[in-house]
Amino acid sequence: MRRYAQRTAGMTASEIRALFSVASRPEVVSLAGGMPYLAALPLDSLSAEVGQLIAEDGLVALQYGSAQGIPELREQICEIMALEGISAHPDDVVVTVGSQMALDMVTRIFCDPGDVVLAEGPSYVGALGSFAAYQAQVVHVTMDEHGLVPSALREALASVAASGRRVKFLYTIPNFQNPAGVTLAVERRAEVLEICAQHGVLVVEDNPYGLLGFDGQIYPALRSLDADNVVYLGSFSKTFASGLRVGWVLAPHAVREKLVLAAESATLCPPTMNQLMVSRYLATHDWKGQIKTYREAYRERRDAMLSALDQYMPAGCTWTKPDGGFYVWVTVPEGVNTKAMLPRAVTQRVAYASGTGFYADRLGSRQMRLSYCYPTPERIREGVRRLANVLGDELEL
Ligand code: PMP
After folding, report:
1. Average pLDDT, stretch 194-212?
2. What does UniProt give as the signal peptide span (predicted)?
3. What is the pTM of this model?
């Protein structure tokens, strides 16, 4: 008798999480994880805020709440989304335990085993994990430096149709993509939406980094261009605090109803305390100023990484040049396998995320993702220098 459900076969350890314990040793410069730079937060005033929250509103904060999330936070979320041109009603927002829960719920309500999800190649590890857990098949769509390539999207749709399978949705991270660091060109956005609408394919827009453009630029959300066919995922993880695990999903009415049912069965309700904490923070703190502080810190770190890459990397390596977000995507010369090289890099006290984890089909062995969000600029330079040495040795072998 088989003990575990078949779907557990698709649940594999993320290469990045498996690396966490080694990569977090102090002597290792970790360019592997995507941990936000929380030291930029005003911890003293947040601590006072938590105390006040319990004192003034403790019996609500510590109680169960509605599965959809507390109404005042959903209103504030609508104001945030308005910055990206989205006009939404709080009734269509569901608060989630981070975007990760939204990814899980969206996959749960749409995908039967064998259904196809289209996703950029490479794509976000956590999303690929959710798709695998529900036995959906991922078909990757090519990107270039301007994001998803519309003609490649058309081809992917045609080839899936020819194979007799069903595409349930396109999963896309249009802004400062994880892991590639590229942004979907504004001119392509309407075209991508049009292709999906023509084929009856829903778009799932995952946008945790949209407000972290280094020049303060904010791109129009796909949801702002098509309210009927886009499910939008947002998160406070990168703009405020990842450990609070507060995110949200904005969905067309009918989809939202299914999501609330899925949320009820998963968690009963998102944590009231954390939602109230976020809501009070938005009401009492200069949250836009905080996002600016984050942006400036990440910009400095991005600059440190790009200049170190220029200075140290061996000939034949190429990389993307993000103008927001957390990540640079590096391609190394033929003959180097970034997954095989990783243990040697860790011995040389530098860690990165090998490209293979970002593809469902294990492509990516000549790529790696470098994150500049967490280490200081000095550590980033040192990490890139060490990485370049490892690569140099590798190329000489
Ligand atoms: N989507 C993407 C593209 C991400 O990079 C991340 C976090 N690394 C998430 C979703 C998950 O965010 P959350 O902390 O809100 O679950």
Report:
1. 98
2. none
3. 0.96
